[in-house]
Amino acid sequence: MKAIVIVVEKITSEAHIDIPEGLEESAIKQHIVDSYNSGQMLTEMNIYQVDFESISAKIISNQSNVELTVVNQIECNQEAV
After folding, report:
1. 30 CB contacts (<8 Å, ≥6 apart)?
2. Sorted alphabetically, which keywords does the UniProt record give (predicted)?
């Protein structure tokens, strides 16, 4: 017997980045978006919190397929080390 397990998580990450002095609010927003899109920010990202939305499994056997929700709507907060 096998099972296909699906875990849905919401991950909150935090990065501390340098912003050039003297930028207007719209330019700061654009700088942050550009840093994220270019991949620069990825090296600075730390997982801050993980919320588990749900976990479900589809059990596969030779006779039939059975869908099973193992855990639903459980929240687990974890601070990054």
Report:
1. none
2. Plasmid
